[in-house]
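can u do me a favor
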């Protein structure tokens, strides 16, 4: 879950590497480091902490000139976050230098063998073992760097995206990937290397995404050759035009990426159904569905696999798909799914949901489902991501780059895509009346402006946040479609404010959690007019009778809950099935303001990273 950057060309590498690492810092921010080569010296600077700490330190301990550079921002897996475990790591001879995103699972036996051969190690990392293995192969078999990297990689087990530089061969950087993402930006007589395209988007929009088990020797004035690590087979590089622009990856005047991304939801929901949803003609056009309609219509069941917030979107989809299409749906944590030997047949459709498209557990679950014969459909946000390439077909959410670690706009655009899929299948199956079908299309088309209206509750959310910012626990309750939203609200608060929070189906309270209720427990209840309103009202009365503090999300004009609750946040009316697209907004704002008022790093919460590329 680290971020890696590399540059070889005619410009000064330092500013490109530093700015690139800042763009990738959402991937991991335990420590940072870089290497520069100025034609003579291989210079390294690295430190525990953020890229800004590296910027300060590197200006003190190295001369920052040189047109070749590699850099790393770390999310610690092997070895605690400290200076010596920071990347880059150098081989014993001092000639080879590496940055690595991923995990080498069999590093310990390799380390033991290398120690027997006289190698010494200064860090606890798997990465330092890899660079010395490459050196050992290079020496023993007298190989060039590219070949040595290939031979070494065929001896390791695990996930990696790496950049390797050899000061004996200073006109190239060798890169390779398995499981962790790696993109190469192709410029005029210069190359950029990074975990995603954000570090080089301002320099070039031509990118090559390396596939799994591929490597390349990036050399100036030579055509880029991509080879398969296993069998050295040459692969034609596929250069794709990047769609994103710089503005999309800047804060745009907001204090945090998370707040910017919350406010982007009206537009990105519109972008997600643009050209797909035609409410006036009653058409939903999604090529991934159209091309595989028979498979969906003849499916015995739909299995949804995902992690974190994407899993919550999957839970909402379970309600929507079953209600609209009567196709049975099961939702699975990808990490559990892949290890419980699940029963899957070729009559099953598996939908894999992932914002980043790089989540290791989801990727592995996809591979398992494919091996067992299921048709796998992906719902991803990052174009060209591993999951979008591993699945048989799919649909992109058009949320744009999501940089805040806490997912917001990806959640609502995932629900938008999954709801459109359910409506399209319902139309094909005739499981929705024509009037209901058209009503849902029209309502979905109105959602962006209703989200805009809901965002006007920001000040109320901020006021309520100032009252409960010192809470140590919090409960979220919802029924039906809004039970997953309660889970998502709790996750948002947990991950950015570090307050312990739990989401529950409101009726579950009586079976235990109600014991937690007292005058210090804020309870957020999602109570829109549509859906199980009366039932939720009685749940609110149960909480009130135990002096719990009630913050209720209600439909505009609600009077009954207003009487009972300590605070209400009003949202526009919509149908029950679409209500998660509105009810989740005040919960995003509430957790955001509580985290800001607690002085937390909202965009880079502790211990987290944007895409979990290791198990
Ligand atoms: C959500 O805010 C978190 N960042 C995390 O739970 C995330 O949803 C999870 O890691 C799944 O990521 P993905 O959608 O990129 O696969």
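np, heres the sequence
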């Amino acid at each position: 879950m680290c971020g890696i950057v590399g540059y070889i060309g005619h410009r000064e590498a330092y500013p490109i590497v530093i700015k690139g690492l800042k763009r990738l810092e959402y991937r991991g921010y335990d420590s940072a480091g870089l290497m520069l080569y100025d034609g003579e010296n291989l210079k390294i600077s690295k430190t525990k902490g953020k890229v800004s700490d590296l910027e300060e330190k590197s200006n003190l301990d190295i001369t920052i000139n040189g047109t070749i550079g590699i850099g790393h921002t770390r999310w610690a897996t092997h070895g605690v976050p400290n200076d010596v475990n920071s990347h880059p790591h150098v081989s014993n001879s001092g000639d080879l230098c590496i940055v690595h995103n991923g995990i080498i699972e069999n590093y310990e036996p390799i380390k033991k063998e290398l120690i027997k051969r006289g190698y010494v190690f200064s860090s606890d990392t798997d990465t330092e073992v890899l660079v010395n293995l490459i050196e050992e192969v290079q020496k023993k078999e007298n190989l060039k760097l590219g070949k040595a990297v290939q031979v070494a990689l065929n001896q390791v087990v695990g996930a990696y995206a790496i950049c390797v530089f050899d000061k004996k061969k200073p006109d190239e950087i060798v890169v390779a990937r398995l499981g962790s993402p790696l993109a190469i930006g192709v410029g005029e007589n210069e190359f950029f290397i990074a975990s995603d395209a954000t570090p080089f988007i301002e320099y070039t929009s031509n990118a090559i995404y390396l596939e799994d088990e591929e490597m390349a020797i990036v050399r100036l004035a030579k055509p880029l050759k991509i080879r398969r690590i296993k069998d050295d087979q040459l692969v034609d590089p596929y250069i794709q035009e990047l769609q994103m622009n710089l503005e999309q990856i800047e804060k745009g005047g907001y204090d945090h990426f998370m707040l910017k991304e919350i406010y982007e939801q009206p537009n990105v929901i519109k972008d997600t159904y643009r050209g797909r949803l035609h409410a006036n003609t009653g058409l939903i056009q999604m090529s991934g569905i159209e091309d595989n309609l028979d498979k969906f219509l003849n499916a015995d069941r739909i299995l949804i696999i995902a992690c974190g917030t994407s899993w919550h979107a999957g839970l909402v989809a379970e309600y929507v798909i079953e209600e609209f299409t009567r196709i049975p749906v099961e939702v699975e944590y990808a990490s559990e799914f892949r290890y419980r030997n699940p029963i899957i047949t070729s009559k099953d459709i598996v939908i894999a949901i992932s914002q980043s498209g790089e989540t290791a557990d989801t990727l592995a679950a996809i591979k398992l489902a494919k091996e067992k014969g299921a048709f796998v459909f992906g719902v991803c946000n990052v174009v060209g991501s591993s999951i979008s390439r591993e699945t048989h077909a799919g649909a992109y959410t058009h949320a744009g780059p999501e940089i805040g670690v806490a997912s917001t706009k990806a959640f609502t655009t995932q629900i938008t895509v999954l709801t459109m899929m359910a409506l399209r299948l319902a139309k094909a199956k005739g499981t929705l009346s024509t009037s209901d079908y058209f009503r849902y299309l029209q309502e979905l088309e109105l959602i962006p402006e209703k989200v805009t209206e809901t965002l006007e509750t920001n000040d109320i959310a901020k006021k309520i946040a100032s009252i409960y910012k010192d809470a140590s626990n919090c409960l979220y309750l919802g029924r039906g479609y809004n039970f997953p939203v309660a889970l998502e609200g709790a996750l948002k608060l947990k991950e950015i404010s570090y307050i312990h929070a739990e989401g529950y189906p409101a009726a579950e309270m009586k079976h235990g959690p109600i014991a937690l209720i007292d005058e210090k427990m804020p309870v957020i209840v999602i109570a829109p007019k549509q859906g199980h309103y009366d039932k939720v009202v009685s749940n609110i009365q149960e909480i009130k009778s135990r002096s719990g503090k009630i913050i209720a999300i209600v439909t505009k004009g609600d009077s009954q809950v207003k009487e009972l609750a300590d605070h209400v946040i009003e949202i526009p009316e919509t149908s029950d099935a679409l209500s998660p697209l509105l009810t989740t907004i005040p919960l995003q704002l509430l957790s955001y303001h509580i985290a800001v008022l607690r002085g937390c790093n909202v965009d880079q919460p502790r211990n987290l990273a944007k895409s979990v590329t290791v198990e």
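The CA atoms of residues 226 and 235 lie 5 Å apart. hope that helps!!
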